[in-house]
Amino acid sequence: LFAISAVILEVAFFQYVPLSQLLLAAAMLAFKLTWTMLSLFIVFAIIMRWAMADFYLNSSKCFAKYSSMLFDDSNDSFKEASISELDEKSQPFLDMETLRIPFLHCGDASTQDGLVLLTGATGFIGRLLLRDLLLHRKSLAISGGVVVLCRAKRGTTGHDRIIKLLNDPMYSFLSEIEKQNLVRVVEGDVTAPNVGLSNADIDAICNTMNITHVIHCAASVSFTQTLKDAAVSNITSSLNLQTLTSHLKSTSVRYIHISTAFVHGGMTGSKNNPLPKQLHTLGGYDAADLYRSMLGTEYRASAAMNELRFPNTYTFSKCVCEHLLSRNRNVKTVVVRPSIVGPAAQQPYEGWAGDKPTTIVAAACLYMSYQWNLWCFGNHRVPYIPVDVVSRFILAKAFDMNEVSSRMCESPASCSDDGFERVSQTSDSPTFEFDNLAASTTSSVDSAQSKDFSIHNCTWDWKSSDSAMFTWIDYALAVTHLGGALGHFSRLTAYIGLFMTVRILPGMNVRKETFATLHKILVQLPIDAVVTCFDHLGYRPRVIDRLSKLSAFLDLPLLFFSFMNNDFYFASDLVAPDELNGERYLFSCAAAAERFVSTIKARRDNKTRSRDSHDLSIMSLGGAVHLPASNDLFWALTQPRGNSFVRLAGWVFRKILRASSVDVTIDFQSFSRAAALFQLSNLEGSRPHIVLAPNHRSFFDFFLVSYLCFALPELHIDIPFIAAADDFERLPLLGWLATKANAFFVKRGRGKADPSLGETLNMLKDNHDTDGIVVEVFLEGSRSRDRRYLKPKTGFLRCLSVAEGEYVVVPIAINYEEIPEQTHLARDVDQGGRSRLNCRGLLTWLKKIISGNVSIGRIHIVAASPIGVNGAMETDFGVLAVEIQQSQQDRVYFSNYHIRTAAMALGLSVDTVSRALVAIGCDFWPDYNKLEECLSCKDVPVTPNLLSEQWMVLLHFGHKLSGFFTKSHPRWCKWLNEIGNESEEFSNDNLDPSVEALVKAIGRSFDKADDLVDKALAALRSKGFRSPTRDHVVQSILSKPRDCPVLLVRAAVSFEIEGAELASLGSCSDDEQLSVSPSYECLINEDQCLGFWGYRDSGFVLKMDQYGETLVTMKGDRYTICGKSLRKLIPFIETETSTRIDPLNEPSLPSSNLVSIPCDLMDEDVDLLKSTFAMVSLSVADRVGHGSGHAQEEIYLIRTGEATRIRLPDAVVWPLSEDEVMDLVSLAKNKNWCLIPFGGGTNVSHATRCPVKGVEPRPILSVDMKLMDNILWVNEEDGLAHVQAGITGRALVEEMAKRGYTIGHQPDSIEFSTLGGWIATKASGMKRNKYGNIEDIVKSVRIAGSNGLLWRGRQDDDVSVSGRESRGMDLCSVAIGSEGCFGIITSAVVRIWPLPECQEHDSVVFLDFEHGLRFARDAARLGPKLPSSVRLLDNEHFRLGQALQGDSSLVERSLAHLWKRFHPATRLC
């Protein structure tokens, strides 16, 4: 602000600048200042994390061990217990001799109706004391009950206050009648004359009631009271009660006064000289004089207080009071001095702290509520005492058997009033007057030794074990960890607070005066200034109002300074037992403070439900409703552990959760119990290895558990090493980031365990700093795509047996309302695909999140009880895996979203489904206490419309329903729960109506699916499909209208057809199959492979890469794609054909049944052929290869061994010259054979197919021309070449290119087809725009006919072709398209062109087919400018071409993903 003002003044006074520039300059300066401050703050946060993170984390083991105490339900245990059960309950250290409840008995039956007068019953100690008095009333011989003296407060009468108190569950062991009879309420005020009692009450108390004990618990525990107020509340009240006690009916009445252990001024004691159980000397001061001074001018009392070094008026007034009480010899007085009273250690339950924070709990409450206060926690023991110990100690001393039994039988006549006037029943105005306080000549110290006055220190004796104690620093750390973990303040705030209050101030050894000055300057004055400033402005925002109320408590660190920075040593009858764990107790105190703070915040925020133990257990870690204690970036930066990549991932994932989910919660109780077990194991020995085993529904699962461990480091569960599927490793950038964020990759989908997994685990153990490692693994393997529980895998668990050491497996259930990729997976189910995780999908999903189009509702994570595994012992891993999954299944919850979606899927009402789920034992979402709350929730995802998606949501709790279908639908029962015990079934008799409706609705859906499959199989088999595949059956069903979800259809099909492709194309056995290698008996070693399209040295190979992903490669080096990984080819084929290609299912190969095909040639004819021609073959392979082509139908027949269904040639002849062709034609004419010319064998027009014998009864010979493949001559001047007809297109192109020419003909089959085949089939090529079709290229042909050689030209001219003639038939026209009917083409003269100087290839992408068609039409009008080849591909061909291109670069993929208009699924090339 100062800098901005300086700039404005400079501009205003020294130069003229337009206002716009002035504003721009100011804005830029403000931006720079903001950026600078932000940068400095980030640097400061990182420095604080560096300085304090390790200390913070190492000191949080107490939290990890005892955080389960936050959610202990033991506070409800006494609600249903009887008095005897409560009385006999095991109490390890409350049964100490010094705390044992006396059992009183006296022959006088009148004493059995004894009463106890109790004050301060609504206070912390008084509440529990009242409970113990009523609970043990028979043992204490006070069957008459308790008289409670209570004053009206804030408009509520004392009677109403006690009634409200008795309604507390801790008094539930009493019936309503017992409460009325045993608790008598008397209105009064102990500070008023006559104790504020009415005449009738005085008469009843003094003359009617048999009160044997008066216990004075009422006091004002305030360190800031004036001396006068402290005297009235703490001294006057005590003296009034003592005087009233002296007027009671019972002569054995005892007066018990509750003082404080800190009545020794500035003395703290030592091991050699502990603070005694005696009155503390007042030096030269008289107690009565000090009391009068406190009520008067306060001068003398103030001087005495300072001189005796009392820290506050409370302890000073208690000390004076003890002296005054000791002077009254007419009342048997017992003084009990408790130290700092903390929450209960055992009774009524561990951690009970009353209805409002007191003493040690109050300090923790302030620390959690406002962290910017200044504390000075010393490394000194906390002088605490549990309130239940105090209560028991008071009863033990008040009802001491040795003293009381004798006094209870004393004669009333033996007692003297000693000057006190007994109140008569007829007294009209009774009054109590004090004796002359100065009259007693007995010193205070001597009085303390008399049998009528005793003092007892209710503290732990200085000899108590250190294990039962804890220091203030330990307490501060526990409170800090608890507040940081539960979100009361940020980790950065915790670092700063600990740095100041634990590191800096204690190390400085500051005195109280110095600390008071620092506190005033750093805390009190700034807050007062801010509050005053807003008061003057007349504006009071909520935060300022809260700060103003809080300022009254800001001096608490000053008031606690003396206790926090000194060690106190007491002499006491109480020695802390070994069972008392000081560390556990300190966390109990912190937990009590947290409950108070949470309740106050809930009341302040007007929450409809108070925060009970159930609410505390459900902790929010993310989502839209999550209220973080700090900015997400600073939250990630200041977490105490995690490398930079983990922090980045945590920050990004927290943002994603906030944008996509309503709330992400965990059952903190379940994880805290697991953490406590790990810490206890660590104390007993080396820490076990931890295996976190969540169920697997979404790719979110990989991050959620790690995010939990990162967000709650106080649990001391390290950020796990994630056993991720190797799909992640293949993702660009993300795979690398995952590796840096503690992920290691497991190869899955191979049909066997990853052999390198054990080695990876051992490497992680060796490289880890601590004893045990934490690993996260999904035992289901791949994620469940329909939300069912998949059968667990045991490969990872078996690897644990190989490695040494002990393991603890923690089953974790992750509950989603809607899983992030739910719609996508449902479409996969409907379409039969199985899309893999890829960057494109993630980027698209992130874009939807940013635009606010993703809402998955709530996520809840809960842990089950840990399961121990000893690697050195034999373990049934199958049983272990089932046990883990059952633990996950037991912790599945349903919400309003699940109910409504299931109701829509089954056509039932919401009420029916909800009641059915509750009836079968399903648990509703833990955010709700009642089913009605769950159903009324409106903040849920939109109910899906897709039927398969609805069933996916229903299957979230499908395993709960499996038992109802054990008999009626056993296969569906196993499908619903693969680990279910088939012997266990739910009885369908006497079912709840809602459960019956639900089961019947699901059963009808199962029946529909089974019926559809049966009908489809019957229809397909009737059409000749003996063994239809699973996908074939599904496609048949989906082609017709149906009202059954595809999800169930596919499941029903899988019941009938086991395996991905059970019906193999071949029906032969393994020993009947032929090898793919060229092992056929054939005359010539053909390059082409029988039963396949292509050559032997090339072909597509289906395999898995090192990451387990299915891909295709082409072997050999013939083509440019050879050796490339074609990852997109299999997904393309699966999508287009709606089939599933299983890489583990071997394809069927050509069958050996082909060996039985007979030959129709006579033996002498065979001999004649072999003697006439050098190349003749009768082998089955050659005959099959020449009697079929490359059509899919023909390949199918070869592979299935059914090639005999078609007629095959009887022999194959390879002529070497034109003369041999002529000889073969002549011989065939004489022998009456049929000749079929054979070129490349692509057989597009079925020209090589042999006619059946009914059409062609003659023997058939196939004439393979491929050995006639020479170029006879080239006439460069005329642009002609004479070429034999058997040359293949590729060989012709290569040979002409060597000469610098091209023929311009390029059909798709160029590598197999021959020149003769082109002419015979009238072929067309892709470059016809420039070079024309085959009829435009061929100038002359030579044909070997049955009557001789046909050709046109001069006999003596072998290098030219005659020109066009107008007479006679054109031999070329006859030959082109003849398909061998007129003879065998032996050679041809073709046109040739010089190779083009430049060849360019380009492509254009169109929005749709119509645009591409218009372009092609426009291009056809270009005339000479038309490119030699223009080819329009539809979308399927375009995507096939993309799939055959191999892996694209990261840049190409990124551009394709970001530029949505060019999505390959909707565009053409």
Tell me the layout of helices and strands.
Blueprint: H1 2-14, H2 19-58, H3 61-66, H4 83-88, E1 115-119, H5 124-135, E2 145-150, H6 158-166, H7 176-182, E3 183-187, H8 199-208, E4 211-216, H9 227-246, E5 254-258, H10 287-295, H11 299-307, H12 313-326, E6 332-338, E7 340-342, H13 359-369, E8 384-386, H14 387-398, H15 401-408, H16 444-448, E9 453-458, H17 472-485, H18 491-508, H19 512-537, H20 542-550, H21 556-564, H22 582-604, H23 613-617, E10 618-622, H24 632-638, H25 644-660, E11 663-667, H26 668-684, E12 689-694, H27 701-711, E13 721-725, H28 734-740, E14 743-746, H29 757-767, E15 774-776, H30 795-802, E16 806-816, H31 822-831, H32 839-850, E17 858-863, E18 867-870, H33 877-889, E19 893-894, H34 896-906, H35 910-919, E20 923-924, H36 931-936, H37 947-954, H38 970-976, H39 993-1022, H40 1030-1038, H41 1046-1056, E21 1099-1104, E22 1110-1115, H42 1129-1137, H43 1163-1172, E23 1176-1177, H44 1180-1187, H45 1192-1199, E24 1211-1213, H46 1218-1231, E25 1234-1238, E26 1260-1264, E27 1271-1275, E28 1280-1284, H47 1289-1298, E29 1301-1302, H48 1315-1321, H49 1328-1331, H50 1334-1337, E30 1338-1345, ...
Parallel strand pairs: 1-2, 1-4, 2-3, 4-5, 5-6, 6-9, 7-8, 11-17, 12-15, 12-16, 13-14, 13-15, 19-20, 24-26, 25-26
Antiparallel strand pairs: 10-11, 16-17, 16-18, 21-22, 23-24, 27-28, 28-32, 29-33, 30-31, 30-32
